[in-house]
Amino acid sequence: MKHVYTLDDLKTGDLPNNARLAVLGYPVSHSKSPQMHQAALDALKIDVTYIRIELEPGSLAEAFELMQEHGFIGCNVTIPHKFEARENCDEVSSSVELLGVANTIHFKDGKVLGDNSDGPGLLRALEDDFECVLEGARVLLLGAGGGAGKAIATQLNQAGCTSLVLSNRTVSKVEDLANDLTDSGTKISVLGSSAEALAEVAGELDIIINATSMGMKPEDAVPFPTEAITAQHKVYDAVYNPVETKLLEAAKANGAMTANGLSMLIHQGAVSFELWLGQKPDIKLMRQAISSTS
Ligand code: NAP
Predict the structure, then answer these.
(1) So which residues are the catalytic ones?
(2) Residue 294: pLDDT over 80
C-alpha cells in the first residue's frame, strides 16, 4: 500500500481493493486521518481501507466522479480543497450552506453530499476535555472569522452559551458572521484582536478558544494577553502541533485548565465516521492511534 495516492491512481484504479474512504488534500502526506480512522474501522471489523489522496486544486470534480465509480463511501477534505469541495456537492448541510466550505463528503445514492464536522467536533472536544456543558458559559473565540473559527462560532451559537465574543484581526469578517448567526438567545458581540481589548473582557469569560493559526510556528505571537488569564478560565487551542503552544503553556502556569486541538481533530473525524457508517468509532482507540505515530 502506498503512503499517498494520486489522481492518476484513481484513473488507473491502482488502489487497495477495499479502498472506500480517503482524505483529500494538497499536500496530504502529513495527515494522520488514515491512522485514526483505520484503527476505528479495524476495531469494528469493517472491511474498508482509508487512504490519502493528493490532488492538485481544480481536480476535485474529476476525483469525486472517479471515487464514486470505485465505490468510495466518502472522504474528508482538507486544505486547500474545502471551498472546491463545497462547489462540487449536489446537496449540502445547513452548516455548509452558511460556512461555504465542506470538509466531509458522503457519496450516497449517486449524489455528492457535503457536510462540515469542525463545529460539532470542537463542541464534543470541549465537553470531553473540560467535562463542561456549554449551557450558560461565557465564551471568547479568537480567529472567529477564519474557516475553523466560523464553523466553531456557528456551533457555539447553538450550544446555549450565555455570551459569545467573536474576536478577529479583520473585524469586518466577524461583523458579517455576527449578522449571519441566527438569534439563539446567546449574546453575541464583536471584538478586534488587540491585547488591550482582549484584556478588558477577560474577567467576564469562562472559556477562551484559539482558532487563529497563531501558535503553529515558534516565532508566532501569542493571540491572547496571557497576564489576563486566571484559574477561572478554561483555555482551548485548536492548534495541536506543537502539543503545547505558548498560549497553553502560559495559561497552565496561571492555573487555567487547558487542552489542545488533538481532541477536535479526533472528534471531527468521529463525526464524519458516524455520518458515513452509522456507527460510533472508539474515541480512545483513535487517540491512541494518532498519538503513537509521529
Ligand atoms: P484560516 O481560515 O486561514 O483562518 C486563520 C485565522 O487566524 C483568521 O481568523 C486570521 O485572521 C487569524 N490570524 C492569522 N494570522 C494572524 C495574526 N498574525 N494575528 C491575528 N490573527 C491572525 O485558518 P483555519 O483553517 O480556520 O485554521 C485556523 C487554525 O485552526 C489553524 O491553526 C488550524 O490548524 C486549526 N484547526 C484545527 C483543527 C483541529 O481539528 N484541531 C481543525 C481545523 C483547523 P484574519 O481573518 O484577520 O486574517
Answers:
(1) 82
(2) no
